[in-house]
Write a structure and sequence with these properties.
transmembrane, MFS_trans_sf, about 425 residues, fucose:proton symporter activity, globular, Growth Hormone, Chain: A, galactose transmembrane transporter activity, mainly alpha
Length: about 425
């Protein structure tokens, strides 16, 4: 295959894979709508409501290594197909969960759905990174993540319309109804998620068939298949400091991003902040994710000209300052400063990921699985912020993600630097 033919094939493959990024962004961000909905239906406190994210992102930690082994066995393309199919099964699980009206059943369906997305993350992120020169990997991943952000921007609007459009009764209002009407109300609210998730299951299965039939290029140069006779361990990858620090950077970044998005509806509904209804607040959640989408399109161009390490550090510092502003103020200043964080979140995940697997060759697969495992930050940090919100209040609890962004400043400035032989290779 000529260089020109390979370039065209890679561009087509990148186009196909970006649709997968869109889909898992949409699915992930629906949790931001599901949390306030289930919180009201099951009368949960903040900590228990955040078990949605704990379950969803906990799957990344538990399933990343099995997913990496699955992708190593199946290859990137079939790994993507498997991830879509597993996610589709999880989405189907919302139907019986709603019939049972049991919170743990919803969490079980979410775990299966998240397992599918974990497989997609393990397969698609390094695949996109390999679809072209290593020097432009951050730019390519940021572009693909821009379509992920398009999914996250649309999800709150569609989810809010389908799931949160009806006025949710408070516990006191519900207690005033006759017992039969209370049961009927809870059945109706629980079942409002069935249609949306059934539709998503159909789309996921159709995508799996499409990708299976589509001829994607096979890339093995950065896998153990491309290094026959050698079995590489996670420890080998972690011996590289930019990988180890990168794992923590992904942990804190995803934790901060998910925590902010998960609590936005409740935060913007507070009388001293926005005083919005839950349905109205979803428009600002959508704006938050739209800012991330816009930032990724802009960031993809910026990263082609500016050092990824420098841009990452600056954006993380701005986000820490925006959170301090939101915590220190009330009204629309607090609202807009939180929404603006989406813009500066834009480049963080793809940039950290690309820096974390830089120049690793056949260790790329192992490092990728570690970075995907670190997405468990989306389970831990939101739960911790939920506990803080229950004890000190929702408003001041947003200082926790500010600390997460300060670590990312450190990673951009120092933690992501190549060391030893890798630094010599980079300078050669």
């Amino acid at each position: 295959m000529t260089t020109t033919q390979r370039s065209v094939t890679h561009r087509v493959a990148l186009t196909v894979v970006t649709t997968i990024f869109f889909m898992w962004g949409f699915l992930t961000c629906l949790n931001d709508i599901l949390i306030p909905h289930l919180k009201s239906v099951f009368e949960l406190n903040f900590a228990r409501a955040m078990l949605v994210q704990f379950t969803f992102f906990g799957a990344y930690f538990l399933m990343a290594l099995p997913a990496e082994r699955l992708v190593a066995r199946l290859g990137y393309k079939n790994g993507i197909v498997a991830g879509l199919a597993i996610a589709g099964i999880g989405a189907l699980g919302f139907w019986p969960a709603a019939e049972l009206r049991v919170y743990s059943a919803f969490l079980g369906a979410l775990f299966v759905l998240a397992t599918g997305i974990t497989v997609l993350q393990v397969a698609a992120n390094p695949y996109v990174s390999l679809l072209g020169p290593e020097r432009s990997a951050s730019s390519r991943l940021t572009l693909a993540q821009a379509f992920n952000s398009l999914g996250t921007a649309i999800a709150p609007l569609i989810g809010g319309w389908l799931i949160l459009s009806n006025t949710v009764m408070s516990g006191d209002q519900l207690a005033q109804l006759p017992q039969a009407e209370q049961v009927a109300y809870r059945v109706q609210e629980a079942q409002s998620v069935q249609g949306p998730y059934l539709g998503l299951a159909v789309v996921l299965f159709l995508l799996a068939v499409f990708v299976f039939l589509f001829r994607l290029p096979s890339l093995t140069e950065a896998t153990e298949k491309g290094d026959a006779g050698h079995h590489h361990t996670l420890g080998e990858a972690l011996r590289h400091p930019h990988v180890a620090f990168g794992v923590l950077a992904i942990f804190f970044y995803v934790g901060a991003e998910v925590s902010i998005g998960s609590l936005m509806v409740n935060y913007f509904s507070m009388p001293q902040i926005g005083g919005f209804s839950e349905a109205q607040a979803t428009h600002y959640v959508s704006a938050y994710w739209t800012m991330a989408m816009i930032g990724r399109f802009i960031g993809s161009a910026l990263l082609a000209k500016i050092s990824p390490r420098l841009l990452l550090s600056l954006f993380a510092l701005v986000n820490a300052l925006l959170l301090i502003v939101s915590v220190s103020t009330t009204g629309m200043v607090a609202v807009y400063s939180l929404v603006a964080i989406g813009l500066f979140n834009s480049i963080m995940f793809p940039t950290i990921f690309a820096l974390g697997i830089e120049r690793l060759g056949p260790l790329t697969g192992r490092a990728s699985s570690l970075l995907v495992m670190a997405i468990v930050g989306g389970a831990i940090v939101p739960y911790l912020q939920g506990q803080l919100a229950d004890h000190i209040g929702l408003h001041p609890s947003f200082l926790l993600p500010a600390l997460c962004y300060l670590y990312i400043v450190f990673y951009g400035v120092w933690g992501s630097r190549l060391r030893g032989e890798l630094a010599k290779e980079a300078g050669a």
